[in-house]
Design goal:
The complex is a heterodimer of chains A (122) and B (670). Chain A is built from two helices and six strands; from the N terminus they run H-E-E-E-E-E-E-H. Chain A has 122 residues and is of the alpha/beta class. Chain A has a five-stranded mixed barrel with strand order 2-3-4-6-5. Classes of the chains: A alpha/beta (122), B alpha+beta (670). Chain A binds chain B through residues 48, 93, 96, 98-99, 102-103, 106, 109-110, and chain B through 477, 479, 653-655, 658-659, 662, 665, 669. Chain A: InterPro entries: NA-bd_OB-fold, Rfa2.
């Protein structure tokens, strides 16, 4: 888990999963269904597509709403989560998933302006 | 110098074909003696044919009375309408006409026109009466009517198959004593229904449509008395209907078949001339729409009978020029029901349109004029709750704002009032169509439903289905742009969005007048030491007072001394964004917003609790806001400096801001 926190984790949506196989990513989406075992759940991105997230340990709590998952993309296009965090819906401005998706597209369309690399320190 | 006449126009007009502004020469004018208003019959020539079946509408009588219509003058017929008499003769009514050349200028008869009627078309008038009077004895003459005509005309017809007149429908040539007057050029072609505005019935043997001229002995008016209406007798007969678009006050007998699109409530009035009640409704058919009003007795007779959405046969009402003040329909005329008016439900007319709407795409509303009446259709993607407000006239009324989006991706807010507001159901994102809403420039672009507007939810219109399909497929996710400003923040074109470095780069404020701009920026520093000053306590005066050190404070402006003062803020702050930073001045109102405290409070805090005073500034530091600023180059003792004053501070709506950034990015990308 330590490893994944040190590398840049591009934000992606479902359409980009295939391009990031075996890479660390950050995925934001709305929780759709949670598997009965609690070790897996599906999320929908701003475009309406769905991805599967797999956890190391089963969920300890109820999961619903918008969630941000950090993990590796498996060969099958699933996200092997290292960590996740829920965006609170009761506070603040509601998260606009469609708008987020638009921003994602811009980030990926103009990599020259949004480089994904560890900033050189010093 | 001979004027050019429109050859062939006479033949065309009589047949009912449309001729664009025909130029004809007047050969003769004769006054018909009628009771009351005089009427003039004209003999017009197009150089090829002449015909005396031209009747001038009474509104043009002055042309005759002022002796402008001298035989051989050349005229331009600006508007005509064709009418067919009960006996099949055709008359062209000249509704609007202009004299192009006087008789002298024209210099005599142009061409060598022959009488149109005598082109072998008709038999003598006698025949007409004899043949047509037959059916009069038989009411409900189904076949006899028309076919009689054909019998009479048959041999006179050149190429006009009597078939046309075939007895499909009844044509009650009922009992009218057809007086055949010695009309020249008489009865042309019965077949015609050509011009005859009879809708829907293949039949067309005219007679139904009556004589345009009431009381004119020239034409056989009689129809009046005869009950030629759908409502009467003739079992299984369908009345001849004419298109609403052709209705005018000069037709004495007509029937329309139309659907009620909008029915108002009964309104009572009471003024110096008396009192009464009325209700009005609008009807539409394939050709157009018209407004109908019923007063007093007719209200009782027809109000409950008429239902919005249903189709009726309507006839015998008074046609008059429309009072545009009360209606926005596209019709020059409107109708008033009277004691003899007839309204009969029609059960079999699927082709009558539900509504005549000319929908404006929401994206195009920006191009329309303020206060214009438009029709729109869109999906209601959000609606506020009903609220009650009190109007200037102290009346309480319900109001509701709903948002409509359409395929242009633009959203507009529509305000509904009264009952419509209360009963509107926004569940399921319905398709809403509004006919006759007023465009207003309230908050950018918005629409308001009027008393006369028709609001339809999920209407049975092709546009509605298209919108539903679009919305369910993609519309719901579209990043819509509202034309109506719901927040004072983004008023699109009015807000001059800039970044801080633009202030220097564009030399803002250097002109004669101050420049204004808006920006998103973060506070990075505030001068808390000198942010408060002691001001004159008078309500309108904010001048700094001088502490007399004796417990009194003097205001130079008011020229008075006061035992107290009020604290006011004058905050100097430094704002920054990605590109630059800028010193700005915030006065009382904007400073209070930034700090979240009133000047008085801060004044007290500074004296009593310094820690908390500092805390206020700590909290505000590095907060991001939208700043609306005024920039001006000011000169003070030989020194010129660009001064920026904050006029307003607003919270950043990140979604709106993001959309603006995305849109800017897209613009830059192309």
């Amino acid at each position: 888990m330590a490893g994944i926190l040190d590398v840049p984790k591009p934000r992606i949506n479902c359409s980009m999963l295939s391009q990031f196989i075996n890479r660390a990513v950050c995925f934001v989406g709305r929780v759709e269904k949670v598997h009965p075992t609690g070790k897996m759940f599906t999320v929908m991105d701003g475009e309406g597509k769905t991805a599967t997230v797999e956890l190391n340990e089963p969920l300890q709590e109820e999961l619903s709403g918008i969630v941000e998952v950090i993990g590796m993309v498996s060969n099958k296009g699933e996200i092997m989560a290292s960590t996740y965090s829920l965006l609170r819906e009761d506070k603040g401005v509601p998260f606009d998933l469609e708008l987020y998706n638009e921003a994602l597209k811009v980030i990926h369309d103009f990599p020259q302006h949004y480089p994904f690399q560890v900033a050189a320190s010093g | 110098m001979t004027a050019k006449l429109t050859q062939g126009a006479v033949a065309a007009l009589v047949k009912g074909s449309h001729v664009e502004n025909p130029v004809l020469q007047l050969l003769n004018i004769r006054q018909i003696n009628t009771t009351g208003v005089p009427r003039y019959r004209l003999m017009m020539s197009d150089g090829q044919h002449y015909l005396s079946s031209f009747l001038m509408a009474t509104q043009l009588n002055r042309l005759a009375e002022e002796n402008l219509l001298v035989p051989h003058c050349v005229c331009l017929l600006k508007r005509t309408t064709k009418n067919t008499l009960s006996d099949g003769r055709h008359v062209v009514v000249v509704v609007d006409m202009e004299v192009l050349k006087s008789a002298e200028e024209a210099g005599g008869k142009i061409g060598n026109p022959t009488s149109y009627s005598t082109e072998g078309q008709l038999s003598s008038p006698n025949k007409v009466s004899s043949t047509t009077s037959e059916p009069s004895s038989t009411s409900d003459a189904e076949v006899p009517g028309p076919s009689n005509n054909s019998k009479g005309w048959e041999k006179d017809f050149t190429g006009k198959a009597p078939v046309k007149i075939s007895p499909m429908k009844t044509f009650p040539m009922k009992g009218s004593p057809m007086k055949t007057s010695p009309m020249k050029a008489s009865p042309m072609m019965t077949s015609p229904m050509k011009g005859s505005p009879m809708k829907g019935s293949p039949m067309m043997t005219s007679p139904m449509k009556g004589s345009p001229m009431k009381g004119s002995p020239m034409m056989t008016s009689p129809m009046k008395g005869s009950p030629m209406k759908a409502s009467t007798s003739s079992p299984g007969s369908v009345p001849k209907v004419m298109p609403i678009a052709t209705l005018n006050p000069y037709i004495s007998k007509w029937t329309i078949r139309a659907r009620v699109t909008n029915k108002s409530n009964i309104r009572n009035w009471s003024n110096s001339r008396g009192e009464g009640k009325l209700f009005s409704f609008e009807v539409v058919d394939e050709s157009g729409e018209i407004r109908i009003t019923a007063f007093n007795n007719e209200v009782d007779k027809f109000f409950t009978l008429l239902e919005q959405g249903k189709v009726y046969y309507i006839s015998k009402a008074t046609l008059k020029v429309a009072n545009k003040q009360y209606t926005t329909l596209k019709n020059d005329y409107e109708m008033t029901l009277h004691a003899h008016s007839s309204i009969v439900p029609c059960t079999d007319s699927p082709e009558v349109p539900v509504m005549q709407c000319d929908f404006v795409p929401i994206g195009e509303l920006e191009n329309r004029d303020k206060d214009s009446i438009v029709d729109i259709i869109g999906v209601c993607n959000s609606a506020e709750d009903v609220s009650r407000i009190t109007t200037k006239t102290s009346r309480e009324v319900s109001k509701r704002a709903i948002s409509l989006i359409d395929t242009t991706g633009k959203v507009v807010t529509v305000t509904l009032w009264g009952e419509e507001a209360e009963k509107f159901d926004d569940s399921g994102q319905p398709v809403v169509a509004i006919k006759g809403a007023r465009l207003s420039d309230f908050r950018g672009i918005s629409l308001s439903a009027l008393f006369s507007s028709t609001i339809m939810v999920n209407p049975d219109l092709p546009e509605a289905f298209r919108l539903r399909a679009w919305y369910d497929r993609e519309g719901f996710a579209v990043d819509s742009q509202s034309l109506t400003e719901t927040m004072s923040v983004s008023v699109g074109s009015k807000m001059n969005w800039r970044t801080l470095r633009d202030v220097k780069n564009e030399n803002m404020g250097h002109g004669e007048k101050a420049d204004y701009f808006s920006c998103v920026a973060t506070i990075v520093f505030m001068r808390k030491e000198n942010c408060l000053y002691q001001a004159c306590p008078s309500s309108d005066c904010n001048k700094k007072v001088i502490d007399q050190q004796n417990g009194f404070y003097r205001c130079e402006k008011c020229n008075r001394e006061f035992p107290n003062f009020k604290y006011r803020l004058l905050l100097s702050a430094n704002l920054a964004d990605f590109g630059d930073n800028q010193w700005v001045t915030c006065f009382q109102e904007t400073a209070e917003v930034l700090l979240g405290r009133s000047a008085e409070e801060l004044g007290q805090l500074r004296e009593t609790d310094e820690a908390e005073f500092d805390e206020v500034f700590q909290k505000a530091n590095f907060s991001t806001h939208i700043f609306k600023n005024r920039v001006k180059l000011e000169t003070y003792n030989d020194e010129s400096r660009v001064k920026v004053t904050v006029m307003e501070v607003l919270p950043v709506d990140h979604r709106v801001y993001s959309r603006r950034l995305l849109s800017n990015i897209q613009k830059l990308a192309h």
